[in-house]
Amino acid sequence: MTDEIYRASTTAPVNIAVIKYWGKRDPKLNLPTNSSLSVTLSQSDLRTHTTASCSPSYPSFDSLLLNGSEQDVSGARTQACFRELRSLRRNLEGQDASLPKLSTLPLKIVSENNFPTAAGLASSAAGFAALVRAIANLYELPSSPTDLSRIARQGSGSACRSLFGGYVGWEQGKEVDGSDSVAFQVAPESHWPEMRAIILVVSAAKKGVSSTTGMQTTVATSSLFAARASDTVPKRMKQMQEAIQIKDFETFGKITMMDSNSFHATCLDTYPPIFYLNDVSRAAIKMVEAINAAAGRIIAAYTFDAGPNAVIYYLQENEAQVAGLFKAFMGEKDGWKGTRGDAIQASEEAFGKMKGEVGVAVDLLKEGVSRVILTGVGEGPVETKESLIDEKGQPISTSS
Ligand SMILES: Nc1ncnc2c1ncn2[C@@H]1O[C@H](COP(=O)(O)OP(=O)(O)OP(=O)(O)O)[C@@H](O)[C@H]1O
Ligand SMILES: C[C@@](O)(CCOP(=O)(O)OP(=O)(O)O)CC(=O)O
After folding, report:
1. Is 259 close to ligand 2, i.e. is its CB under 6 Å away?
2. Global pTM?
3. Contacts with 398 (C-beta within 8 Å, 6 or more apart), sequence order
4. CB of 305 sitting under 6 A from ligand 2
5. pLDDT tens, 43-67?
6. Could you report the per-residue pLDDT of 257-307, keeping only the tens digit for each?
7. Is 103 close to ligand 2, i.e. is its CB under 6 Å away?
8. What is the predicted pLDDT for the residue at 1?
């Protein structure tokens, strides 16, 4: 083998669950206590870009540079991903002696998130999906997105869903080794491309209780949790998949909101309690309720992950009554400029109906929201020629 530098790059999306993963039956393998379902968001707005590379000329340790700062790769989750991918490459090399022995070389990985890391914007999901996809590309593995979802899951549970675009489920599985705990595509983005999301970034700071720790405490202490996992979620998984198949937004929206509420109820039922929602989050809920009341049906649906940021799903046809309303009330925030935001006009009629009722909520949102992100359903990881490592093996920064 010469001192060649081998490189491959990908981008990967964020996903925001409409039926939440919360609880592990096996914390080492990230095997969940319930199935979950998410919408993959467009990479034009939120994405991780990762280049994986290996070379005999590299220092003899694996490394990961994330947004310009060196990360610790010795953690069990990153190590599990590296180990599984190397083992698949080793099998290929065993079958074909002409292949370079990439599995024996140190990995150098450079990654950039175009959004804040660990702020509840699902950076670990996009991050681990990109890491696994980029190394699989580097190793030229024939693995399917399903196979890779099994590996990405070990990096971060929700990452398994970011291997697919569109509407994506994660089957909890039954096997102790996790072999059947994989992601699957419920429908591609082209099936229901009108799905939009507005994200109200409430706090871009690092969150208080991490998902990993939070869900462990919930499993150990909440009595509500057991019913959620055994009863509530299995029923909702079925209803949600049907709603997506027939593009029934009212059902999609109702289940989305109820499941977010149920997840946060188990957080409150955890001892000591976990509070991810704050007054600004509750103001976002109030606004969505007012929007739906003005429309006389569900046209907007909120959901919250392990943090106060609101993600509000709606259909393009209702943009004026949903995103338009937020723009009318808080159009001075960052994020409205650009092709997507400029095109958004408020519905005068809906604005008139709501104005009198939402004064307090609007004040809270104006004060607590730092910016909005306008996005929609999008595709899965995309291989790219744009490399974050040059031909000499040095990192290239694309930010700034
Ligand atoms: N591009 C990336 N490449 C590899 N790992 C990443 C990347 N981005 C984030 N991570 C990992 O994910 C961690 C952040 O995950 P964490 O679960 O705390 O936050 P989050 O994903 O933003 O929130 P949540 O998953 O609850 O929505 C980082 O500390 C890092 O280990
Ligand atoms: C609330 C959630 O966003 C929790 C995500 O948890 P993580 O996937 O971040 O947890 P780990 O598996 O411990 O890394 C709900 C969801 O995305 O389904």
Report:
1. no
2. 0.97
3. 49, 112, 386, 388
4. yes
5. 999 999 999 999 999 999 999 999 9
6. 999 999 999 999 999 999 999 999 999 999 999 999 999 999 999 999 999
7. no
8. 59
Residue 215 CA to residue 306 CA, distance in Å, equals 10
Q: How many CB atoms lie within 10 A of CB 254?
A: 16
Burial class (CB in 10 A: 0-12, 13-18, 19+), 94: exposed
pLDDT (tens digit per residue) in 184-198 = 999 999 999 999 999
C-alpha 72 – ligand 1 centre gap (Å) = 13
What number does the ligand 1 atom closest to the CA of 77 have?
31
> Mean pLDDT over residues 95-113, rounded?
97
- CATH architecture of the domain formed by 195-376: 2-Layer Sandwich (3.30)
Contact 33, 173 (CB under 8 A): no
Task: Give pLDDT tens digits for 144-160.
Answer: 999 999 999 999 999 99
Which of 123, 153, 304 to mutate to test ligand 1, by most ligand atoms within 8 A of the CB atom? Answer: 123
For tokens 């996790």, the residue is 178
Q: Which of 51, 164, 163, 49 is nearest to 113 (CA)?
A: 49
Q: Among the bound ligands, name the one nearest to the CA of residue 209.
A: 1
- Fold designation for 6-189: Ribosomal Protein S5; domain 2 (3.30.230)
Q: Where in the chain is the domain with CATH 3.30.70.890?
A: 195-376
